[in-house]
Amino acid sequence: MTLDLGKPRSAGRLEGGGAVSGSTGGVPLIIPEPQGWDCPNCTVTDVTPPLPPGQSRYHQCAGLHGLSAPLVRAGTRAKVEAVEREDYLNGDEQARGDDGKPYMAVRVTRDDGEDLTVNAGLASARLVT
Ligand SMILES: [Zn+2]
Q: Is the whole model's pTM more than 0.85, yes or no?
């Protein structure tokens, strides 16, 4: 027994970025284009399947004091910067960069807005038995 999937059509492009890579009995296959990511502060790049809006990829950025920083979608004009904690720590544990300074956030500024990844101060306790 054989399954006839019809004659393959020539590959082409769809509006919106998808690619048509043939046909299965009249139903076109839509293969989403991979999403490129890069960092404006270091050389890290990545390619993933398309992610929903608002999601991102993170990496330990060598150009941003070793902090966990988001990658930006390839082709997006953006600035990624570390935000130093400016108040008194008073014993709080705070994420620190490789320069020893406490950083409370990583800010991504794009033409259409900004995102903030907050490094909240950590509580600590000691168990006395
Ligand atoms: Zn980086």
A: no
How many angstroms does the Cα of residue 86 sit away from the middle of ligand 1? Answer: 23
Higher local confidence (pLDDT), 92 or 3? 92
How far CA 81 is from CA of 13, 26, 63, 77, in Å, comes to 37, 49, 10, 14
How far does the centroid of ligand 1 lie from the alpha carbon of residue 90, in Å?
A: 30
* DSSP conformation letters of 52-113: -TT---EEE-GGGTT-EEE-EETT--EEEEEEE--S--TT-B--B-TTS-BEEEEEEEETTE
80 C-alpha to ligand 1 centroid (Å): 9
